[in-house]
């Protein structure tokens, strides 16, 4: 289902409580989730199942510590292109999607066409990424910004 085709799901307070708990710790047992939302296990399990089927819960993953894995450099890469034809866009998307260093990629409105969040070991590793990217797809202008400090990072969506 594409973003254009997604239907907004109506959530009640119990659904929001369940989702907030799972966003914080998806390893909580069904007993623990049920106890914290003040419901019994079967209705909570049915709600979680329905939220998965509706695509509200997309995945349950382990969030790893990049620094512990030696991926100490985070770059935000601003890309301007002079090309906007579908063939170029497809090549660009393909190049970006196959690179594990790219954690996020967004198409933007305004002066910058795309922004990438890239996680690598160091500046030399970023340069290898950059050289590989520009060898695959023509890019008008690239600006790389090194994050000096991560002030906030979360995967939790505001459910308020």
Task: Summarize the topology.
Layout: H1 13-24, H2 30-37, H3 41-53, E1 73-80, H4 86-97, E2 102-107, E3 114-120, H5 123-136, E4 141-146
Antiparallel strand pairs: 1-3, 1-4, 2-3
Helix pairs in contact: 1-2
Question: Could you walk me through the main structural features you see in this protein, from its secondary elements to its overall organization?
Answer:
- With about 160 residues, the protein is α+β, with helices and mostly antiparallel strands.
- It folds into 2 domains: about 15-55, Winged helix-like DNA-binding domain superfamily/Winged helix DNA-binding domain (Arc Repressor Mutant, subunit A, Orthogonal Bundle), CATH 1.10.10.10; about 65-145, Lrp/AsnC effector binding domain/regulation of amino acid metabolism (RAM) domain (Alpha-Beta Plaits, 2-Layer Sandwich).
- Helix content is about 35%, strand content about 15%.
- It is built from 5 helices and 4 strands; from the N terminus they run αααβαββαβ.
- The protein has helices at about 15-25, 30-35, 40-55, 85-95, 125-135; strands at about 75-80, 100-105, 115-120, 140-145.
- Strands 2-3-1-4 form a 4-stranded antiparallel sheet.
- Helix 1 (about 15-25) packs across helix 2.
- The longest helix is centred in the last third of the chain and has 14 residues, at about 125-135.
- The chain is elongated and about 55 Å long.
- The chain starts with 12 loop residues before the first helix and ends in a 14-residue tail after the last strand.
- The mean pLDDT is about 95.
- GO terms for molecular function: sequence-specific DNA binding.
- Pfam families: AsnC_trans_reg, HTH_24.
- This is Transcriptional regulator, AsnC family.
- One of its GO terms (cellular component) is cytosol.
